[in-house]
């Protein structure tokens, strides 16, 4: 039987008539990385804030291990916000010890835990460096260490890769996986990066305009819009996009076609076989192609299929 750590029941949040979250229902399993994927303003952060007791819902309730979130000892939750929350004039080690003291972590345990976090997040050589002197990526990793110093069972990461270089992002991703695989923690992740959601999440909730659109494993989400390929085509004359879309739709051989960022996004089961026919039509009508690529379905394609718009629009 599945063990659920968090259960959101009909959660809604209104701000002066604006519905930031609209009737959210979901369950998060113990020991999984659960991703919230959606564009900025989709309601991801608001949803999580209600689920961990930081924000009062306008409607609905949240259970953590079967207990109403209002009655849960918040020490079981660690939150790493998108905005950096650091003591600029304290060193990394001093920061961790101060946060640990606030949570009343015993001194001997605190020292070992702080050293391990610094080691795991590649900050040990910066243990005695004050936070203001750290690089942006190091500050973000220290921010995460501070959220974990009291050893919470539930870890909330709000856009953890925001502003990180590729190398720092890899360090962070490997660390997030280790929280689940080696320590059995439940990790809740908000992101607008498809690659991040796809690589890290056991299950993903896709949100937009405050609503839950789909919830499943990354593999199943990509299967939901069909197997096959996606052709991305950019025309030299974008004004011809509509004409090509109409032609493609009349062929009855494609699954869907959308214009995203001036690219025509074509999804079909046998896209490669269809290309010669499409190119002949374009040649006959003197429509030239600036760029053409073929790839497999991604989570962004799932989002486009659901909403008709790109994830970052």
Automatic annotation (TrEMBL):
Primary site of residence: membrane
Domain ABC transporter residues, every copy: 6-234
One term of GO molecular function: ATP binding
Places the protein is found: Membrane
Entry keyword set: ATP-binding, Membrane, Nucleotide-binding, Transmembrane, Transmembrane helix, Transport
Superkingdom of source: Archaea
Gene Ontology terms: cellular component: membrane
Membrane-related topology note: Multi-pass membrane protein
Protein name per Swiss-Prot or TrEMBL: ATP-binding cassette domain-containing protein
Species the sequence originates in: Methanobacterium alkalithermotolerans
């Amino acid at each position: 039987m599945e063990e659920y750590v968090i259960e959101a029941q009909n959660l809604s949040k209104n701000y002066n008539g604006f519905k930031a979250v609209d009737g959210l229902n979901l369950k998060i399993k113990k020991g999984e990385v659960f991703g919230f994927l959606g564009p900025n303003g989709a309601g991801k952060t608001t949803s999580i804030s209600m689920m961990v007791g930081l924000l009062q819902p306008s409607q609905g309730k949240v259970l953590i291990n079967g207990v109403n979130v209002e009655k849960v000892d918040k020490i079981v939750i660690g939150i790493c916000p998108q905005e950096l929350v650091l003591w600029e004039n304290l060193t990394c080690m001093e920061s961790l010890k101060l946060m640990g003291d606030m949570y009343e972590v015993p001194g001997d345990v605190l020292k070992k835990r702080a050293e391990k976090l610094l080691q795991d997040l590649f900050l040990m050589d910066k243990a005695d460096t004050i936070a203001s002197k750290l690089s942006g990526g190091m500050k973000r990793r220290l921010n995460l260490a501070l959220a974990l110093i009291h050893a919470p069972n539930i870890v909330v990461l709000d856009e953890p890769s925001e502003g990180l270089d590729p190398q720092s992002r890899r360090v962070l991703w490997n660390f997030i996986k280790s929280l689940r695989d080696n320590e059995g923690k439940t990790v809740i992740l908000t992101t607008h990066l498809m690659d991040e959601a796809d690589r890290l999440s056991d299950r993903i909730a896709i949100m937009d305009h405050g609503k839950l659109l789909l919830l499943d494993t990354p593999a199943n989400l990509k299967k939901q819009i069909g197997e096959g390929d996606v052709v991305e085509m950019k025309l030299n004359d974008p004004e011809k996009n509509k004409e090509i879309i109409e032609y493609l739709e009349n062929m009855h051989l494609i699954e869907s076609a959308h214009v995203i960022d001036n690219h025509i996004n074509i999804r079909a089961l046998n896209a490669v076989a269809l290309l010669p026919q499409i190119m002949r039509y374009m040649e006959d009508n003197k429509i030239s192609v600036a760029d053409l690529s073929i790839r497999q379905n991604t989570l962004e394609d799932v989002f486009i299929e659901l909403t008709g718009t790109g994830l970052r629009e």
